[in-house]
Structures are given as C-alpha cells and as structure tokens.
Amino acid sequence: MSETQNQNTEKAPLQLPEGTVPIIPVRNVVLFPGVIIPLSIGRDRSIAAAQQALKAEQPVGLLLQKDPGIDNPMPSDLHPVGTTATILRYVTGPDGTHHIVVQGEERFRVKEFKEGYPFLVAEIEPITSTEAEESQRPEVEARMVRLKELIGELLELMPQAPSELVNAVQQITDPATLADMIAAFIDIEAEEKQKLLETLDVAERLDKLLDHVAHRLEVLKLSKELSERTKKTMDERQREYLLREQLKTIQRELGEEEEGADIEELRQAIEEAGMPEEVKEHALKELKRLERMHESQAEYGMLRTYLEWLIELPWSKETEEKLDIKAARRILDEDHHDLEKVKRRILEYLAVRKLNPQGKGPILCFVGPPGVGKTSLGQSIAKATGRKFVRVALGGVHDEAEIRGHRRTYIGAMPGKIIQAIRKAGARNCVMMLDEIDKLGMGAFHGDPAAALLEVLDPEQNASFVDNYLGVPFDLSKVMFICTANVLDTIPRPLLDRMELIEIPGYTETDKLHIARRYLVRRQLEACGLKPEQVEITAEAIRTIIRHYTREAGVRNLEREIGAVFRWAAVQIAEGKADHIRIDADDIQKILGPPRYENEVAMRTSVPGVATGLAWTPVGGDILFIEATKTPGNGKLILTGHLGDVMKESAQAALTLVKARSDRMGIDPKVFSECDVHVHVPAGATPKDGPSAGVAIFVALVSLFTDKPVRPDVAMTGEISLRGLVLPVGGIKEKVLAALQAGIETVMLPARNKKEWEDIPEEAREKLRFVWLENVDQAIVEAIGPEVLKP
Questions:
Q1: What three-state secondary structure class fits 317?
Q2: Does residue 692 have an active-site annotation?
Q3: Binding residues for ATP, per the UniProt record (predicted)?
Q4: Residue 9 burial by Cβ neighbours in a 10 Å radius (0-12, 13-18, 19+)
Q5: Choosing from 692, 721, 754, 755, which is the catalytic residue?
Q6: Distance set, CA 634 to CA 161, 608, 651, 668, 674 (Å)
Q7: pLDDT digits over 25-78, tens only?
C-alpha cells in the first residue's frame, strides 16, 4: 500500500463558505468526540469530501444514514446530528480502495445543506455543553462509578478486550468523555448509538448507557455459561472418543478388534430398531454391560443373544393392510368351498376393521373336526388383508414358559412361542393362528399354559404383554389372533370367554366331490410332478373313494387317497407304460385295494335287538350300533364296549323304561327276572360316553324283547328320561352328516333340537327324512312299527 497525505496536489481546494464543512455519509458507524476510528470510503462524493478536507486542512462532518441500503443518500436521508472529525491519515490501496483514520472533535447540528458542490456541504452549528459543571453533581458521579464497575465486569467477559482499555476507562474523570468513550466501543445498534450522540444531557446519557451495558453484561454472562456448558460437553465427548480409540488400539493388540466393531454394530442396530423409548434405554444399558465383559465370560453369549432378540423384533414395523372387501370375498371363495356362514363372519370382521381401524377386534376361534379347512382359512384371511401369516402349534404344550418365555437366568432360555412367532413374521400386525388350542396340556410343576394365554388373547391387556425372557412390554394389540379347536370341552371357561366361536361343520359327499375336483386334484398333481394332460380322474372315481375308502368330516384322508392314486399313475408314466392315464371308478379297487368301508347298516340291523344310533366324536359324527341280547339268568344288566359312566346310566334308564312299559308292548314281566340282558356297543377299543344313545338303547331293548327287528334305514339320537321323554343332545349337524354318509334314509332327532334345522347342510335336508321325537313311543312306532304298542 502507498501512503500520502496530499492527494491530487495539482488541483487547488475549493473555497467553502465560512461555517460549512464537507459531509461524509456513513453506514452503521457513529463517531463520538474524542474517539479515533478507521473508515473505508468508496463513493465518489465521499472521496471528494475527504480530499477537500485534507487539502483545505479543515474538519469533515460525519453523518449517519437513516437507511444503510441507500447508495447515493440525499440530505433528507441523513440524521441531522453528527460529529466533526479531523482526518489523521488518508491511505489509498493498490486495488483502488480508500481508507481514512479520523478523530472525533465535537457534536454539531446541520442548519442547512449547500448546493453546487461535487460533494455534500452543510452549514453546521456546533453543539456546546456544560459537562464540566455537570461532573460536580453527586448523581452524575454515582452513575459514573456504577458505569465503571459494569464496564470492568464487561471487559473481563470479553477475552479480546486489551488490558490498556480497562485502565484507560478507570482513569477517565470527565463524565461526558466517559460516556462517549463507552458508547463508542459498546456493541449496540448504530441507531442506538445515534440516540446517545443526540442525547446532550450527561445524566440522561449515562442512564441510557447503564441500561445498555447492564443488558450486554447479562447477555455475555449467559453466553459464557452456555459456552462453558458446551465446552464441558465437548470435553466429555472428546474424552469418550479418546478412550474409545485407546480401547480399539488395545483390542487390536489383543486381537479383539472385531468384538469392538460388533458392539458398534449392535449400538447402531438398537438406534435403528424403532424401539419405544423405555425399551431403547433398557437395551443401551444392557449394551454397556456387554461392553465391559470379555467374550470368554459365560454371560457374554447370553447377553448378546438377548440384545439380538430385542433388535430383531418388529417394534414398529407393520405391513400395509389391504382392506378391500370385494377382493377378500373373492379370495375366500377361491380358496374355500361353501362355509358361507364362516366367510360372512370374516367379511364382517374385515368391514368393521376398515371402518374403525383403531377398534379392538374379537379373537376368532374356528371349531370343527379335522380336515375341514380351519388352518387354511387363517391363511386366506392373511392373504385377503395383505398381512404376514404365522402359525403357532399349541398341541401338547404343557409348560407356561412356552407361552410366556423362560427367564434369562436359565441356561438355554428363550422367548415364548408368541414372541418367536412375531419375530418370524417380521411385522407386529401379522395374522397369528393358535392351532389346536384345545390340546393344551397342564403339567404338574410347570404352570398352566392356558392361563398364560388369557393375557395374550385379551384385547384390553395384550398391548403391554411382557415375555419373561424379554422383560420389557411388547404391544400385541395389532396382531390378529385366530384360534382353532376340534372340541370345546377341554378349553378352560375363562379362555373360552375371550373368543368368538365360529363352528365349521363337516362336508357332505357333494361338498367333498366339489372340493376334490377344485382343489385337491390340482394340489396332488403338482405334488406328484404330473400335468393335467397326463392324468385324468373322473368324478365317479372320486365319489368311489369318498364312499368306500374314507369316512371323515373333512377331506384330509380324501386328499391322501387321491395322492395315492396319482402316485400309482406316476409310476406308470415314469416307466413309459403310458402317456395319458384316465382313472375311473372301476380302477380304484385295483389301485387302493378292497373297500375299507361298506354299508353295513342293513346287515347289522337285520336281526332283533340291534339299533343304529348316531354319535359325535372329535373328528365328526359317526354311526353307532347298539346290540342287545338276553341269556338265561337272574335279571342282571351286562354292559360292554368301553362305555363311560353316563352311557351306562343311560342303558340302565332304558331297561327300567322298557320294564315300566312292558304291559303296553305285550312283554311278559317274568322274562326280566329269568334272563340277563347284555348290551354291547361294537368297536370296543374306542371309549364311548354321553347320554345321546338313550333312545337307540331303548329301541334295541324293545326290539329284543318283542322279537321284531329295527328298520335298517333308520338312525336315531336323543337322551331319554324315566317318564319316556326324549331330551335334546348336541352335535346334531355332525350326526346328520354321518347318517347321510352311511346311507341312512330316516333320522330321528329330539324335537327340542328342531331349532338347529338351519344349521343342517341343505343337501342333508333334501336327501334325509327327519322325524322329531317328543317321547319314546314315537321312536318305537317309527323304528319298529305301530303294531308293537297296544292301543
């Protein structure tokens, strides 16, 4: 940089009128008397004014712009009060920039601006004050003392403030000088400084400064406090970082670097797992414990496994739910034949879910014999809603810990089946099927798993389900629980109360044929690696399998037999004996062997003392033959066939009823004391119990003592009383289907079961003749004939 104090000496300075000075407008800078400051000037008029003052050796006036954004300010854009200044130095840089160093002299007020000059020129009026006299006032002196104290504190908080400035301020005795000095360096807005410049009363100026300094002091104190707090935090982080780096170095030397990396991976996984805040804090606390352990410690592996379980659970992951009722109806119809009542209830559930997403839906429980499609219904529901499907098998579970999990203190501890299934699904809004809930056991020492399920299946409680292994609550309220069962007798009442029961009856022969042709044939063809054009099976062949090779409520064995037929065909094709095989009814016996089931009703009931009853079993309905015979004796009743207590009592009641009505039926009363009566129910290895065989036992005994056979096409069920009334029984749908499959034509049912007429499949209602019994006399007339009863 070059330096000069005489710029453009070739030009003479202009002659300005007396009492006028060149004016330099300044932005955001206020000069106070006695203060020296540097200024950069760039506008042509400001440069010309500075050069004029320098050449004419006269002061220059500095006025603050009202709006710093104006590049060419007019007189109206400037404040009327400013400070005259002497230019101590003028410097021009090599890049053309101009800098001046000025010292403030005294305040002035503009009287008017003069025109006709290349720069602003103003006639000014110096502002005189009586500050020296004011210094004698005690209130002014008190303000000076307080101001010096605050300035001392302020300068201590400003690390960049030179120590000379502190001493200089303390040595000033003139209040006006002190006020101007402090106003010059205090960090406040230019407009505020201008107000201080225009404040002529020293006491008032000191008061304003005290307010500004006190405010600034509070700001600096707060800033320092925040800075120290931040520095402390940064120091702690820096310390932690250094310690971690040292730990990594030590681990690297010990060959344990991978372990440290694993800890960081776990920490990152915990942050990204979406855990609730409470669970996240617990996980990080356990991670710190893991960091302090060596991997050779026994607890290290257990704790790491525990953290991995926490990380892998879907705390916030949900699959997008599709609640399209039409699509759901189509999927259910595609996957399942008939079951209209069940499908309607599922669609109702989905419709309510769509209209009230936050509502707590019921826990559905499908009840029915094996093989009717309970589990596949759950899969169809998951498919219709777009949710993940998981199945939890509860058959044989006898330990409460299998539901609620083991505590982590045990070796080999794991979460319960519920949490395991949630992890497997990968979404907390999955469809979870609790299969075979009626097969839950109860060990002598391991608690009751059914009781553990009470919380799981209660919508009011499962939002905070705590697995013993996890030790933290997990929200199960988004899970759609579906249970399946064959029977309800073994399910505890409190658990049963939490579920909505949907009964799924067995299938008729026509239903089975339809299901086989629509689903089972295709599935077994794929399982055997066959194509439809290679193997064809006729409807009559399937019907033959249904009638003579299976006897079940569902279609599981039917599918198994169809698979056996296709495997036989696969052997023929694989050996090259045929390219296309058509399987008809005549081929079934050659493939599957002799028929396993025959219509033995007519054969068995062709002699007196045999009646056909209807029974309910966990796998559906079945026909039951009641055989009675008499032998010489002394009136004993012998019961065989693995009968339960209730069925034995039914036989005793039936014999008593026959004795009581012997006169009406023409039976000699002596016969009861001269012979023993033996009642036998075949399939002696199968346990049988219940009161529903009462009517059949009574009819068999009447047939025995009257020596008249029972009609072979009649089957019956119902409990009897000693007054001869026929009482209602359960399992009507299953029993009717069993009668239909066995070739029965007439079914006798208790009249009080007539309310279940709508539940009986339509095909059975069309093919069977129903007789509704009020008393045993009607049963005798229908099964044996009216001639038995005397008028």
A1: coil
A2: yes
A3: 368-375
A4: exposed
A5: 692
A6: 129, 21, 18, 15, 5
A7: 998 889 999 888 899 888 888 888 888 888 888 899 999 998 888 888 888 889
- Cα first-last separation, the chain: 145
Q: Quick check: 181 and 169 in contact, CB under 8 A? A: yes
b/e string for 706-730 if b means 16 or more Cβ within 10 A? bebbbbbbbbbbbbbeeebbbbbbe
Residue-wise pLDDT tens digits, 188-238: 888 888 888 888 888 888 888 888 888 888 887 887 787 777 777 777 777
Binding-site residues, in ranges, read 368-375
- Pair of tokens at residue 725: 């009334």
DSSP bridge partners of 612: 625
pLDDT single digits (tens) 733-782: 888 988 888 888 899 999 999 998 888 888 888 899 999 999 999 999 99
Establish whether 354 is a catalytic residue: no
Average of per-residue pLDDT across 304-327:
86
- The number of residues making up the chain comes to 791
Annotated binding site for ATP: 368-375
pLDDT tens-place string over residues 114-149: 888 888 999 888 987 654 444 457 777 788 778 777
Q: Enter the tokens of residue 494.
A: 């409190």
DSSP calls for 334-367: HH-SS-HHHHHHHHHHHHHHHH-TTS---EEEEE
Distance CA 8, CA 399 (A): 106
Contact 780, 699 (CB under 8 A): yes
Three-class secondary structure of residue 65 per DSSP: strand
**Are 779 and 726 a contacting pair, CB within 8 Å?**
yes
> How far apart (Å, rounded) are the C-alpha atoms in residues 151 and 169?
8
568, 532 contact by CB (below 8 A): no
Catalytic residue among 193, 388, 512, 735: 735
The pLDDT value given to residue 764:
87
CB 40 within 8 A of CB 90: no
- How much is the pLDDT for 676? 93
Separation CA 18–CA 773 (nearest Å): 138
